[in-house]
Design goal:
- With 140 residues, the protein is of the alpha+beta class.
- The chain has 1 helix and 9 strands, in the order αβββββββββ.
- It has one helix spanning 2-22; strands at residues 25-36, 42-54, 58-63, 66-82, 86-97, 100-111, 114-121, 124-132, 135-139.
- An 8-stranded antiparallel barrel has the order 1-2-3-4-5-6-7-8.
- Strand 1 (25-36) and strand 2 (42-54) form a beta hairpin.
- The termini are far apart.
Length: 140
């Protein structure tokens, strides 16, 4: 009985830590951007810094220090077994671009301790952006 209680306590603790990470503001940084086609082949690589700030309600993206996009989050699916090392988040968001709503999906995935971010616009499926995350900061 003690083993069962201990196991359940550990599972609840791990679940709480994993869920808590999904509720925090995070800032992801990268140093280069890969443009990829629908098949996953790289079509272009740009040496540029990007900072992606994500909180409960919005995603803000700055490239080379210049603010580019603010998108309001409509849904966020978060499933990390090891915070920002193993797992995945899928964020659906909408940005206002010249008076038109642009729907996007941002997928953050961690495998073997390496984190990548894939950015896709719903209206432009042929040009996706994938970046390797160099730095991750969690804000209170």
């Amino acid at each position: 009985m003690k083993k069962i209680i201990l196991t359940l306590s550990l599972l609840i603790g791990i679940s709480a830590v994993t869920f808590a990470q999904c509720d925090k503001t995070i800032v992801l940084n990268s140093s280069h951007t890969n443009h990829i086609d629908e098949s996953g082949a790289i079509t272009r690589t740009d040496d540029e810094t990007a900072e992606i700030a994500i909180d409960k309600s919005a995603v803000n993206i700055a490239v080379n220090g210049e603010h580019k996009i603010t998108a309001n989050i409509t849904s966020n699916t978060c499933n990390w077994s090891l915070p920002f090392k193993e797992g995945k988040s899928v964020i659906k968001a909408v940005a206002d671009h010249d008076g038109q709503d642009k729907k996007m999906t941002i997928t953050i995935e961690g495998k073997d301790g390496k984190v990548t971010l894939l950015f896709e616009l719903e209206d432009e499926p042929g040009d996706r952006i994938k970046v390797a995350i160099d730095k991750f900061v969690e804000k209170a």
